[in-house]
Design brief:
- It is a single chain.
- By secondary structure, the chain is an alpha+beta fold.
- It is 34% helix and 32% strand.
- It folds into two domains: 3-44 and 154-191; 56-146, Immunoglobulin-like.
- The protein has two helices and nine strands; from the N terminus they run H-E-E-E-E-E-E-E-E-E-H.
- Strand 8 (123-133) and strand 9 (136-146) form a beta hairpin.
- Helix 1 (3-31) packs antiparallel against helix 2 (155-191).
- The two termini are 18 Å apart.
- Residues 1-36 form the signal peptide.
- Keywords: Membrane, Signal, Transmembrane, Transmembrane helix.
- The chain crosses the membrane at residues 165-186.
């Protein structure tokens, strides 16, 4: 073998070592981001539903259970018997939002609709409802949170994302440093 072939073999061995070091460094750095954080560790915590949920109010008494779900400006109300969870038949409902009487329309048995009045925009709305079905009459009350929910992430989500970005940035810089050091050493050996 002549000197050129020996030099090429040395350079290819050195380049193989540099690439191996870069791959090892990258896999060690980037594998640390694949950890199970809160809500993803499948531990004892109950799964949390993700996505947008419509604002709602839940009201309960000994006789009735009611759920009001706000969809746009329409409040859909579902009323069941507390003991059986069956929809209330032939119910009459009187609804007040922030003390203002609001008309209620029967949609189907145990289901009612009410249009939010114009004066109600964002904030907490006091909901009170009188439900009467036969001889059973009860008053239900709760709070409905109406408003434009900002698309801002929680502090933990921002910190998690930021730490991931920083970690990837550091990893990228380390891999780049390994390549630069390898290139400089390869060039210096080639110049000899």
């Amino acid at each position: 073998m002549n000197n050129i072939e020996i030099n090429v073999m040395k350079q290819s061995k050195f380049l193989t070592k540099v690439l191996s070091a870069a791959v090892l460094t990258g896999s060690l750095i980037f594998s640390t981001t694949a950890y199970a954080g809160p809500g993803h560790d499948h531990g004892d915590e109950a799964p949390v539903a993700v996505g947008e949920a419509s604002p709602r109010v839940v009201m309960e008494s000994e006789l009735f259970e009611a759920v009001g779900i706000l969809k746009g400006r329409m409040l859909e109300i579902y009323i069941d018997h507390a003991a059986t969870n069956a929809p209330v038949q032939n119910a009459k409902v009187e609804l007040e939002l922030n003390g203002q009487q609001v008309p209620v329309e029967l949609h189907s048995e145990g289901e009612f609709d009410a249009q939010l009045p114009e004066g109600i925009e964002e904030g907490t709305v006091a909901v009170s409802m009188t439900v009467s079905a036969g001889d059973n009459i009860d008053l239900l009350a709760g709070d409905l949170i109406v408003g434009h929910h900002d698309d801002l992430d929680s502090v933990e989500e921002v910190q998690s994302r930021l730490s991931t970005i920083v970690l990837y940035g550091i990893g990228g810089l380390l891999i780049l440093a390994v390549f630069v050091i390898g290139y400089v050493r390869l060039k210096s050996k080639g110049d000899k």
